[in-house]
Amino acid sequence: MKGEIKMDDEMLEVVEVISEIIKDDTTNKHIKESLSKVIGILKEQENISVKIHNALQKLEDITENKSMESFTRSAIFNVVSMLESINGN
């Protein structure tokens, strides 16, 4: 039970980081929409591993955007790292 509470806190932190990327004026509209979908995936009532897998797939698609600002790409890679860390626990 205690692990679940920690996992929830970690997922909330991931959602907060994604929200900050969305709020950034340099993030283009298409990427913001895709990141909003990632937040939706993370808030689904699925098994944590399934949510993370689906979110990582969507994030991989997002990072293939060649016109993305380098700061945005770095921030998304940070989110990927956070999710992989949660999944590894």
Describe the structure.
- By secondary structure, the protein is mainly alpha-helical.
- The protein contains 4 helices and no strands.
Could you write a compact summary of the structure shown?
By secondary structure, this protein is mostly helical. 81% of the residues lie in helices and 0% in strands. The protein is globular.
Q: What key attributes describe this structure?
A:
89 residues; mainly alpha; de novo design (two linked rop proteins); 81% helix; globular
Give the helix/strand layout.
Elements: H1 2-23, H2 29-43, H3 48-63, H4 70-88
By CATH, the topology is de novo design (two linked rop proteins)
Number of beta strands: 0
Instruction: Report mean pLDDT, rounded to a whole number.
Output: 89
Overall geometry = globular
Question: Architecture, according to CATH?
Answer: Up-down Bundle
* Fraction in helix: over 70%
- Report Rg: 13 Å
Largest β-sheet summary: none
Number of domains: 1
Along the chain, the helix and strand elements come as HHHH
Tally of helical runs: 4
Strand % is under 5%
